[in-house]
Amino acid sequence: MAKIAPSLLSADFADLKNEIRKVENGGADYLHLDVMDGIFVPNITFGAPVIKKIRKVTSLPFDVHLMIDRPERYIKDFADAGADIITVHQEATIHLHRTIHEIKSYGKMAGVSLNPATPLETIEYILDDIDLILIMTVNPGFGGQSFINQMDRKIKKMRKIIDERNLNIILEVDGGVKLSNAKDIISWGADLLVVGSDIFNAEDVEFRTKEFKRL
Ligand code: DX5
Ligand code: ZN
Fold this sequence. Notes:
This protein is an alpha/beta fold and 215 residues long. Helices cover 33% and strands 19% of the residues. The chain is built from eight helices and eight strands; from the N terminus they run E-H-E-H-E-H-E-H-E-E-H-E-H-E-H-H. Strands 1-8-7-6-5-4-3-2 form an eight-stranded parallel β-sheet. Helix 1 (16-25) runs parallel beside helix 8 and helix 2 packs parallel to helix 3 (75-81). The chain starts with a strand and ends with a helix. The site of D-xylitol-5-phosphate has 22 residues, from strand 2, strand 8 and helix 7.
């Protein structure tokens, strides 16, 4: 069964505690936290101090998605703030291998994310070192965008690599995931679905989370 990570990006930022409670009651497996710096992506969101505060109001594991340039500058801050998984973009750090090992040195799970145009081959030589791959199925920066259809090939190909090489890697998909396409994405081999707008813009956030869990 695929797991669900609601993305706080589409939540009501004035009411985060209650928003988190709703997805927690709905059976969310992780909380997905989108950190944006206005450089790697056009948008700016929040950083480690906010994550540290919300760490106190939930026991959900934190899946921190760093959409920031040269993330190696801030790995320790996010580890200290209470991240469980720290995911960096392949495109954002020159020394990806070193950055991954820094994440692991703090006892955290290390993830690598790929923009839609970045080939899977770019992470060929670090597959044995990572705990999670995050395949972006929209161009990162904003919630509420449409799933880029040709990403199905990328998800299937990654699934095949993981299975053939018997790798211990979580395959996470982020961007444009909705109730209407989630079943297909799971059938292509995703283990973990990030859902932002389709959960937090729903009339009943808790019920919508449950609907995803039932898939
Ligand atoms: C986009 C973020 C996503 C975003 C997904 O840059 O990485 O996590 O919250 O939002 P939806 O589900 O609305 O596409
Ligand atoms: Zn994300």
